[in-house]
Design brief:
By secondary structure, the protein is mainly α. The protein contains three helices and four strands, in the order αββββαα. The protein is flat, with a radius of gyration of 40 Å.
């Protein structure tokens, strides 16, 4: 009888471990948050080429290697030359995507318009011919205030 008890007990611990491992896997899969794609305010720039490469390049010429680069960082929107094409000094080789700088320019133009309108409004406020009447009204209010203070002190 003793041999049978040892035999049955051998499988109990591995079965419990297998059950706990199954529950852990079920719990991890069930509680894993689903990821949603991020919101894109504008569609990304699409390249007409099958493979794209970003980086600084070297133009191989017949005589020397010439380093090229852009003054500003950004994505290439358009390549205007082909492999083996001869180019002249100053010729445009690529065009960069300019959506972000254009958006910044529009925002700054809007801020400039607001500032100009505010300046115009401030310049229109008290005109010089209105100032004497306004100063006289201030003097009148001061006199009335002094009268009220004296009257209050008597009471």
């Amino acid at each position: 009888m003793r041999a049978k008890e040892n035999y049955d007990g051998k499988f109990l611990l591995p079965m419990i471990a297998l059950g706990m491992a199954s529950y852990a896997a079920y719990y991890i899969v069930g509680t894993h948050p689903s990821t949603q794609p991020p919101f894109l305010p504008a569609p990304p720039v699409e390249s007409p080429f099958a493979l794209t490469v970003c980086g600084i390049g070297v133009v191989e010429s017949a005589t020397d290697n010439i380093s090229i680069g852009a003054a500003l960082p950004g994505k290439v929107r358009e390549v205007q030359v082909t492999v083996g094409q001869r180019v002249q000094v100053g010729e445009v080789l690529i065009r960069l995507d300019d959506r972000e700088p254009q958006a910044r320019l529009k925002a700054r133009q809007a801020a400039l318009d607001v500032a100009e309108k505010r300046l115009a409004r401030l310049e229109q406020l008290p005109r010089e011919e209105e100032l004497p009447a306004k100063l006289e009204r201030i003097q009148e209010c001061k006199a009335h205030l002094e009268f009220q203070i004296i009257h209050f002190q008597r009471v």
